[in-house]
Amino acid sequence: MSAEIHPTSIIGEGVELGEDVSIGPFCVVDGEVSLGDGVQLHSHVVVTGRTTIGEGTAIFPFASIGHRPQDMKFEGEPSTLAIGKNCTLREGVTINPGTAGGGMRTQIGDDCLLMANSHVAHDCMLGDNVILANSAALAGHVQVGDYAILGGMVGAQQFLRVGRHAFVGAMSGLGKDVMPFSLVSGLPAYMASINVVGLKRRGFSHEDLHTIRAAFRSLFSEEGTLQERAEVVAKQFPGHPLVAEILAFLRAQPGRSFTGPRSSQDLEAD
Length: 270
Description:
By secondary structure, the chain is an alpha/beta fold. The protein has two domains: 3-159, UDP N-Acetylglucosamine Acyltransferase, domain 1 (3 Solenoid); 200-267, Udp N-acetylglucosamine O-acyltransferase, C-terminal domain (Udp N-acetylglucosamine O-acyltransferase, Domain 2, Up-down Bundle), CATH 1.20.1180.10. It is 16% helix and 26% strand. It is built from four helices and 28 strands. The chain has helices at 196-201, 206-219, 226-236, 241-252; strands spanning 3-5, 10-11, 16-17, 21-23, 28-29, 34-35, 40-41, 46-47, 51-53, 58-59, 64-65, 80-83, 88-89, 94-95, 105-108, 113-114, 119-120, 125-126, 131-132, 137-138, 143-144, 149-150, 155-156, 161-162, 167-168, 173-174, 182-186, 189-194. Helix 3 packs antiparallel against helix 4 (241-252). The mean pLDDT is 96.
């Protein structure tokens, strides 16, 4: 095992260090922590609890990782926090482990970027390639899908879901689930469009964008209930995988509220 540890840092006896771990000045790592190969703690980083950090992840100064949840129901249960591979956690990031009321686990996927002062609360589940911009904050039990981006100072209330490839504009307030592929903004947030720029960057075709937009137009029309409109959309686009993903997100948790457009004009072509 090879690890480079600055003499001012404190490493607990129970900590597991992979190959080529680098721990800079004034860090504290204790508890049942495991740092994968190539993990880098720049300086003044605290990692504690039952926390696993995947290989290649870099954590910047004054991040606090794995301290007890900010949940008054927490009673010291042996919950965990898992952070994936090749993530970047910038200055002042805070992430809490899970609780008994939420599956006992908080999880961050691979290749995620959490910018300065962003917060991930207890029992949150983030997919791969998620970006939280500066000071974005997730309350407990929030789920964020792959490639979703939350802008600066976004606030997401507890138990909320953000679908894959969604984009949330800066300073938005999320009180309802955010549909996959959508672009939402505002306080309270509304669906302004689909995430055209992000989807193009990830290789979605013009036909894909047209289909997603058309599906949302039908889904958020004014006729019938949401579930009735979902049945209409399923018949309009039988077997289309992207539409099926939208409908699966809608049906996964009955009774949820969804961030929709203010009017049909919000879903016109850009």
